[in-house]
């Protein structure tokens, strides 16, 4: 019952020659892949292996290896991503401290490592160990005083400038794709776009190195987003080792989805959150098999990172938090306020950052990327140094803000006035009045907040690797901690107020300012990225308990609603639009009442559709058509009169087939007839040898009728991953809709410039 | 540019009459819905609300309410599902203890609650409090001795029989759909099938009550699967309150997916695991919006359950576990062995259970469901009572097996010989030689294992609510604990062996038998259900730490591989096939080289396809066609000669339209011409008034060419949720492929009986 002779689905190109000519089935740079066709090709490959595996033991083993290669790739990705993340963490640690001083015993030790080896490791003296010397101590032998301060200040700025200059130069010279967070581009690539070199080996190497440099330089950026890019580069590298993945753009994207999960997993130490991030934010086609493998890759990466143990505390997570008191219903109000703040911050950041990036693209500003980086770094360093909360690295800052004030905490933020009558228990310290340190800290935090807000807008989008998870979280954490301290002091001084009376007696520990910082961080991150489930799960993995999930969720939901009210796009989608990538978002709902006939080409008044006929055009006709148009493919019809559709031929394959036939097949000349039918057409006796091209004809092109609502067409494009779709009415070919047409139509309907969609 | 006059997409039925006649757009029982059409209808509804909302403030508020209704439904589902789960837990607790005795102070207290209120609440005497009386004490005033034992034995059996009889009678009389776990049917319903009453209010009520009865009766079944059904009934109930969900079968299924997540969330106290379970196992169409809402519903449900606090320990999770020692690499070998065991158990269970269920369906056995339940209950009770590990409830058993032996543990399983020279630390007890109790326990556990394996096969599928999560986990936990104790004793007595030497010194706590039980439970559950990510995440939420995720994952992966080697179907898919539901599994890969032309109807030699012409058939012709065939719809073509496709008309809507026209429109008689075009056809002067039916015509039917590979067709059916698809060649209509045809073809290709697919 299987009609094998007629078997020539979209993936089968081999009913004529045994070996397809080279390059058939590949795509050009900046083009969109055809998911159905990739899937079909993979099934063909799989069928071949399965049928071969019955022939001999060797083939059977090969088929087993093929089946296992997916897991092997995941293992390798996990190992490499985890290792790179560990190395980056260690290097950043060392280089950040290098800005302040150097370790005498071994210059490659960071401040903390240097003082570990020192003998005086009592808790109080940990920060002052003789082996660690500030630059002023080393150079002019002064540790205090104005001149020492100025010297250290200068050294700080110099190192920052050096790191930033090195980073931007490396990116410019070796790997221009290494800049930015990479997530917008990865989203586009995963949706089926080709950007050659974006996930290449050079990008991997340069991004890893420059990431260390820029993070150490103290710029307001994080390593989390770029780590996703680095992990995807690893994924791309390993998938190129296995023909199953290297030769199939669809399968390769399954590996990349898993790699993205591994990237987030190592960035936060949150494997489940990483998988959900990949599912929710990054991936386009995410079958359940990939879910399982992503989970595996994310776990391997997390455990590799843990065995490297860069933080020296065998914790998996970036910010480990442990709170001792529950939260109370009345606290939901400040939590929701923080959510509103997060939403507003998200909106402000996206608008300002996009406006600034557009200006960079369109004005002369974009011509001096090195200068821009140097200037921003200099300003950042100059303003950051005097304030202790901006001088320290942003992850340390967040960590400090998240922390609950224990009894042994020496930080300025924990400078509360203790009741002398009270013995100090280790946990469960009651709310106390704030001391001088806390008030100073509040001022410094307020300044740090303004500084971070402004400088992050200008930093994200420069020609260096830059993530915005950490800066966003920092903004939220600062705001949250300030609100938290405010509520705490209010509750301490006014515990007879009706809102506090029920849950905040004197002597009780009722408000945890660290929790507010965490809630604020989640809200701000949510406002910028519009993540939902993955955000809450990542935060859940940080705290490790369901206890605090309700505050986090309340803030995340509020922040998303507030931000969505001002604009549906998250920062990544906004950057995708800014760059004009052909990305068909799964989350956008198309609700307009247009029909396929309104979108298809040719429009009314335009010249008719360029088609091929099945058996009446010469090679020259086709070559002229190819030269005169730049369409990616041509529908093939029975004849120009009947316009009944037979199939679809890709431009690239037509060109290759004709070139190949002219070189290899005898008797093919310019006026040879090209035919797509099974049998050659009846030709006059003296006509040249005709050229059969059935093998490059896609006999199952996708068609819709002209009355199909566009919402259905959009759905089909999204779910099946089409490149183009033909439009018919009562069996006659009317026109064609490409992915670009769909995107332009959607932009037009949303009152945006349709010409902003640049690629096909 | 919007061609509004011609706007008649699949969802728009209103281009002629303002109000569609009743019942248009609904589906018959045991039919499949058309997802694209449901989606399109929802978009129409949404558009209408959005455009109306600009008219007045009242309409704007209504549109806000509509937008919020999704969250309200989720909140209500979470609240009700959590409450029901809490009530079920409390009732089961009480009724399970009722089989053994009664509380004198208040008969509605369970054993534990009874002894809480008692004054003698020291730890050792907790089990013996005077207020709790065994039946023998109460009835004949004897607590020890053979006659007391026999009396208690009899009472145990009597109560079990009473509970089981009540349950099976209630199910038979009031709600036949309340039987089984419900998950296979819910999977089918979520994939787009209609089973009226399956999620009705009666089913909800009866399933809740009978679930308590059967779990208390001591049968080898669990409440976890049925809780998913109960939660889905809640979801169905609340979605019927909002027209957004009640009138759209597609939207309703989004709510049901979230409800399933809430069900698992309360079953295990694992909200994230619940969402992933819904995503991985149950749901079919799971957009990201639903993911977020499911998470919300799952959280609300979990917190509602926690505030009810049925276990009295304010723990959210069903089995809370805390281990004190890490695992070692060498232990991976027994863990993988447990995985193999789990896979073998899964295969054995599925094969035997399906064979037994098939026998029940086909022989006289199925005619006596009450007797069957009584007999199985009697046998279960008689065998279970003498063995303490089968007498206690299965969840208590699992809980005990998971537990690490602490210093204060009085259980038989923790009867180790202590070193008298050693002081007893609270945690971190070194490995010790097993005492007599442990050896007795091993024998009893072995017997319990055999008993559970056999009896579960016969229990699952009877006409009572029955889940198999708990029995499967029990089988695995018993096997795991036995292996764990074995490894522990081996390591204790032979710590000089090379495999133990590196990690198991004398006096160290190296093996945790409880962890083996947990790994075994995961492996067995994985073997039966073939869950992957959700299984690991549920287990992760039980232990609450990433520490033990690698052993769990190793066992889950092994178990899935071993079980898959013997057959790809999990127990739920196997039951779906057994019942012949039209379920198109997303996980099955279709790899055969067939084409659409091989599957479409009519086959070669069959009578031609029944079609309607656009303007030449009379009402009578159509009525005859409808009477003579039972197709769900008919393609409409220009004329029988050209066979050019215009659209598709649903049978149900044709019948309704003709009935309606005959009643309401004047001049419609049997030989009126029916036309589907915009303009009426030119008719002879004396012909009766024609009937315009364009509004029921779907102008955008889905078409594929006859050369389309079936793998693509299957993909399209899956991803777009089609009911049928028309097959064309060069614009001519050749045939039709329905979902049933696809399923039959897939069954045939897998060498199964294609007639087993029963519904359309």
Fold topology:
The structure is a homodimer of 760-residue chains.
Chain A: H1 35-53, H2 57-98, E1 101-103, H3 111-117, E2 132-134, H4 135-140, H5 146-174, H6 183-190, H7 201-216, H8 224-239, H9 243-246, H10 249-268, H11 271-282, H12 288-308, H13 332-362, H14 369-384, H15 388-391, H16 394-402, H17 436-459, H18 469-493, H19 498-501, H20 513-529, H21 533-543, H22 549-566, H23 571-579, H24 596-599, E3 612-613, E4 617-618, H25 619-628, E5 633-637, E6 645-650, H26 651-664, E7 673-675, E8 691-692, E9 697-698, E10 703-705, H27 710-720, E11 724-729, E12 732-738, H28 739-749
Parallel strand pairs in A: 3-5, 7-8, 10-11
Antiparallel strand pairs in A: 1-2, 4-7, 5-6, 6-9, 11-12
Task: Please give a structural write-up.
Two copies of one chain form a homodimer. Chain A is mainly alpha-helical. Among the domains of chain A are: 329-409 and 433-569, Clc chloride channel (Orthogonal Bundle); 596-756, CBS-domain (Roll), CATH 3.10.580.20. Chain A has helices spanning 35-53, 57-98, 111-117, 135-140, 146-174, 183-190, 201-216, 224-239, 243-246, 249-268, 271-282, 288-308, 332-362, 369-384, 388-391, 394-402, 436-459, 469-493, 498-501, 513-529, 533-543, 549-566, 571-579, 596-599, 619-628, 651-664, 710-720, 739-749; strands at 101-103, 132-134, 612-613, 617-618, 633-637, 645-650, 673-675, 691-692, 697-698, 703-705, 724-729, 732-738. Chain A has a four-stranded mixed beta sheet. The first copy, chain A, has a three-stranded mixed beta sheet with strand order 4-7-8. In chain A, a hairpin with a 7-residue loop joins strand 5 (633-637) and strand 6 (645-650). In chain A, helix 20 (513-529) runs parallel beside helix 22. Mean pLDDT of chain A is 86; it is low at 1-19 and 120-124.
């Amino acid at each position: 019952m299987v009609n094998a002779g007629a078997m020539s689905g979209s993936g089968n190109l081999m009913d004529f020659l045994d070996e397809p000519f080279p390059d058939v089935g590949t795509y050009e740079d900046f083009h969109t892949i055809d998911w159905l066709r990739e899937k079909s090709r993979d099934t063909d490959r799989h069928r071949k292996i399965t049928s071969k595996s019955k022939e001999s033991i060797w083939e059977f083993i090969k088929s087993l290896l093929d089946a296992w290669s997916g897991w092997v790739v995941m293992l390798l990705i996990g190992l490499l991503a985890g290792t790179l993340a560990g190395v980056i963490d260690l290097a950043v640690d060392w280089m950040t401290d290098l800005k302040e001083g150097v370790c005498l015993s071994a210059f490659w030790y960071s401040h903390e490592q240097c003082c570990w080896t020192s003998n005086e490791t009592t808790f109080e003296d940990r920060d002052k160990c003789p082996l660690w010397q500030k630059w002023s101590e080393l150079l002019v032998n002064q540790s205090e005083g104005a001149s020492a301060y100025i010297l250290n200040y200068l050294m700080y700025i110099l190192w920052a400038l050096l790191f930033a200059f090195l980073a931007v130069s490396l990116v410019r010279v070796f790997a221009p794709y290494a800049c930015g967070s990479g997530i917008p581009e990865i989203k586009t690539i995963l949706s089926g776009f080709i950007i050659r070199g974006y996930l290449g080996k050079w990008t991997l190497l340069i991004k890893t190195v420059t990431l260390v440099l820029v993070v150490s330089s103290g710029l307001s950026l994080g390593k989390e987003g770029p780590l996703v890019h680095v992990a995807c580069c690893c994924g791309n590298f390993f998938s190129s080792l296995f023909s199953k993945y290297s030769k199939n753009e669809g399968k390769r994207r399954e590996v990349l989805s898993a790699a993205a999960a591994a990237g987030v997993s190592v960035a936060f130490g949150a494997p489940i959150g990483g998988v959900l991030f990949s599912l929710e934010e990054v991936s386009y086609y995410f079958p359940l098999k990939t879910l399982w493998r992503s989970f595996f890759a994310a776990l391997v990466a997390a455990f590799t990172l843990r065995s490297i143990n860069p933080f020296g505390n065998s914790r998996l997570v970036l910010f480990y938090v442990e709170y001792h008191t529950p939260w109370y219903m009345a606290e939901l109000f400040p939590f929701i306020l923080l959510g509103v703040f997060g939403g507003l911050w998200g909106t402000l950041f996206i608008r300002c950052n996009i406006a600034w990036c557009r200006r960079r693209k369109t004005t002369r500003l974009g011509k001096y990327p090195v200068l821009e980086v140097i200037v921003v770094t200099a300003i950042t360093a100059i303003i950051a140094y005097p304030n202790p909360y901006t001088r320290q690295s942003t992850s340390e800052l967040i960590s400090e803000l998240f922390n609950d004030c224990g009894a042994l905490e020496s930080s300025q933020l924990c400078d509360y006035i203790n009741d002398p009558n009270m013995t100090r228990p280790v946990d469960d310290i009651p709310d106390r009045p704030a001391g001088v340190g806390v008030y100073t800290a509040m001022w410094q935090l307020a300044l740090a907040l303004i500084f971070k807000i402004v400088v992050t807008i200008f930093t994200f989008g420069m020609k260096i690797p830059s993530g915005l998870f950490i800066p966003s979280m920092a903004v939220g954490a600062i705001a949250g901690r300030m609100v938290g301290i405010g509520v705490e002091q209010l509750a301490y001084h006014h515990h007879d107020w009706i809102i506090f009376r029920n849950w905040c007696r004197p002597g009780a520990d009722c408000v945890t300012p660290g929790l507010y910082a965490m809630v604020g961080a989640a809200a701000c991150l949510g406002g910028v990225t519009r993540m939902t489930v993955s955000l809450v799960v990542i935060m859940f993995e940080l705290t490790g308990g369901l206890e605090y999930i309700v505050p986090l969720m309340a803030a995340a939901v509020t922040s998303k609603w507030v931000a969505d009210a001002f604009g549906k796009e998250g920062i990544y989608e906004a950057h995708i639009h800014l760059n004009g990538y052909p990305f068909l978002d799964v989350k956008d709902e198309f609700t307009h009442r247009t029909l396929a006939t309104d979108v298809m080409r040719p429009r009314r008044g335009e010249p008719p559709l360029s088609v091929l006929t099945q058996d009446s055009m010469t090679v020259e006709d086709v070559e002229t058509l190819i030269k005169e148009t730049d369409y990616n493919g041509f529908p093939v019809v029975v004849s120009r009169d009947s316009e009944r559709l037979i199939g679809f031929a890709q431009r690239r394959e037509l060109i290759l087939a004709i070139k190949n036939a002219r070189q290899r097949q005898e008797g093919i000349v310019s006026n040879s007839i090209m035919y797509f039918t099974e049998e050659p057409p009846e030709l006059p006796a003296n006509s040249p040898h005709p050229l059969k091209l059935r093998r490059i004809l896609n006999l199952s092109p996708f068609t819709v009728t002209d009355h199909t609502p566009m919402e259905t067409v959009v759905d089909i494009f999204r779910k099946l991953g089409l490149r183009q779709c033909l439009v018919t009415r009562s069996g006659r070919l009317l026109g064609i809709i490409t992915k670009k047409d769909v995107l332009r139509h959607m932009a037009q309907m949303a009152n945006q410039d349709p010409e902003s969609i640049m690629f096909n």
